[in-house]
Amino acid sequence: MDDTWAWTPPVDAGIGPDQDLSLEISWCVAPSAFAPLTSAAPLAVVLIHGFGACKEHWRHTLPALGAHLPTYAIDLVGFGDSSQPRARLADEQSDHHSMHYGFDLWGAQVAAFCREIVGRPVLLVGNSIGGVVALRAAQLLNADAGPSPCCGLVLIDCAQRLMDDKQLSRQPAWMAWIRPLLKAMVRQRWLSTALFRNAARPALIRQVLRQAYPSGAHVDEELVELLYRPSRRPGAAEAFRGFINLFNDHLAPDLLAQLDLPVHLIWGEADPWEPVAEARAWAGRFPCIRSLQILPGVGHCPHDEAPEQVNSLLLAIAEQTSRTQQAPDQQAT
Asked: Is the pTM of this model over 0.90?
C-alpha cells in the first residue's frame, strides 16, 4: 500500500528554507500491517534506503516482514517519489524553497514519520547511508519520542563516509592536496548536474549493480528500472548535488558512541565500498552493538541480493526486540 504524507521541516533547525515549506513524502506499508492480527503489535519496522535508491529497493523485505508485524518503507527527501527541493549548501544563503540535504534533514524526516504516521515503538533498519540516517533518527527520537520511541536499530552495510573532512587522516596524503579543488568543482551546479545525468543511465546502473551485487543474484530489469525511474524526475539532480557536497556531517562511529540502544549489524563480506573490517572494528568498539552477521559472497545490498538470509535475521531481531519491549509493560501490569 503506497501513500503520501505532507511534512514541514522545522524552520529553525538549519535544514530547511527560511519559512515553512511543505514536502510530499512517499511511503508504503505492507498490507498485512492493517490486519487484525498485527493491529496491536508492540513494534513496527521502518526501512530506510541508501543513496540513489528508494522504498522499492526493499521489494523482498517489505512483504516478508509485513507478514509478521507492521513494516514501513519511506522515500527520503530527494529520492524516489518524495519531494526533490533545490539543494542549498551549508555556506549558501537560505531562501524560501531550498533545503540543506544531509543527515539532520533525513533524520528529522524519519523521526517525524515515526511520530506522526507509525505511532508505535519502532525498529529502524537502514542500508548504506540509510544506516546513518537511522542512527540520527534514533538520536532525535530519544530526545522526543512521542508515541514512537526507537527500540533498536539494524545497520546493513552502513556507510562509512570516507570523503568527510573528519576522515581526512584515513585518506592518502595526496588527497589533502586535491581536496580544495575537488570541493570547488563539485559545488558547481552545472558540473554536479552533468555528473548526475551521466550516472543516471540504465547501462551505467547495471555496471554499478554488478559491483554492488557480486553474486549477481536478483540483478534484474525490475531492479534497474526502480533505480532509474526516480532519476528522470526534474529535481533528481538536486539531491545528488547536496549529497556529494556533504564534507562535514554526521559519521556513524560518532553517533554509535552516543547511543545506548541495541544495534545489530548485517554486512556483506564482499561489499566493494564499505569494508567488513570496519564493521568488525565497530563491533569491538561500541557496547551498543549486540551482534554482527557477516554474509559470505554478498555485497553492498544484502537485503536485495540475499533476501532470504537477511529476512530471517531481521525477523529474529524484531522478535527479540518485541519481547524486550513487552517485558516492561508486563512488569508494569
From this structure: yes
